[in-house]
Amino acid sequence: MTPARRVVTLPPSLRGPDALRFAADARSRGADVLEVRTDLHPAEAVDAAALSDILELLVSERGTPLPPAWVAAARWVDRDVVHAGDLAAPAGKLLASHHAERPLSTEEALRLWDVPLPPGSLVKHIEPLGQESRERISVLVETQARLRARFGDGRVTVLAMGPTALPVRAVLARRNVLDYVAVGGDWKAAPGQRLLADAVRETRALTREDPHPSPLPEGEGASTGRLAILGTSIAHSRSPRIHLQPFDRIDIPEDAPVESLVDALLPHYRGFAITSPFKIRLARHTGSPLDAINTLVRRRDRWESFNTDTAGARTVLERLGAQEVFVLGDGGASAAIRAVGSETGRQLRFLRRAEISGPLSGSGIWTWPDRITPPDALRFEGARVAVIAYGAPARRIATEITRRGGTPLLLGAAWFIAQARQQRALWETAS
């Protein structure tokens, strides 16, 4: 089966030469199609012909009629089967779409598509995810299968929408003709889109293994099923670069119902890397004896939880080389540090933000994510402070430590690699 074509949407802030540069950059990153929508751009702001010279163009009618110049330059013309005045499009260009306002049963969805479509038309069906449940995901998978049976392979795209829809979209993408993804940064065309880089990485890995990759079967065994990192503000995560593919970045709000989400995804994912802020919540949800966990492994009809952060904590404490260590924060990462500290006889002092009142000296570990604002009272007197984040967040934290009088030690990569090795071994045991 041919992998889905990766579609990126032109952001509304980009016009003229900036739009052309965006299209060229998206193509260099692995995008196949550029979408331009009438609700995001006025006709005069877009040079459709010039854009179509860079990427295949998908023009979408959203409220405002499509300019003729856009239609002429487009590879596909997206018109809504309910709200469009008609479904007219040049031969072979129609992408007929439907955006449901509520979750539908498969039979309800199929009735919406009892419409005559020109030969060769593509079909796009979109629904809000609604409740995070196995039943809901199964309905969307069944809707996709039934639409493919009706209209044929290579013609159907089914998408879920919502703040926790990303993993469902990733599952559906394996059987879709189009995969709507985000280039990165703060703007996404729709909630639930995964990153272009992750979609490209997955396709390349699958193509290396099999020049003609086929969809995953419904019953996924120990060596199949998706992997993912699950957290908040994780666009910087390096996990997809080092773990087996497919590996998704599931970036969801801090208050999302993560417990019901992981249970709903049990048939489709064989493991998760859990990061802030869900380590403690999912430890409780899975009945773990640990205070916090960072790894879930599928065991047929349940999740088994582990904390491989202890391997990372052990590495960082060894690098610090101190017997007395203060720890900034008392969340999921701190649980691993506490466990290793008790094993090795180190004296650890855990400090929450409200408990900091004077300068800190000696050796310490900063566990707060960079999205958390440190207290104004935080100051260091020559303290060596290990940073267990990595990438851009680690650099921002290091700058903050220096500004407050400390010396940062960037040990996030060492922590990450140590715990990731153990995670990978555990995922290989999934059933």
Automatic annotation (TrEMBL):
It comes from the Bacteria. InterPro entries: Aminoacid_DH-like_N_sf, Shikimate_DH_fam. This is Shikimate dehydrogenase.
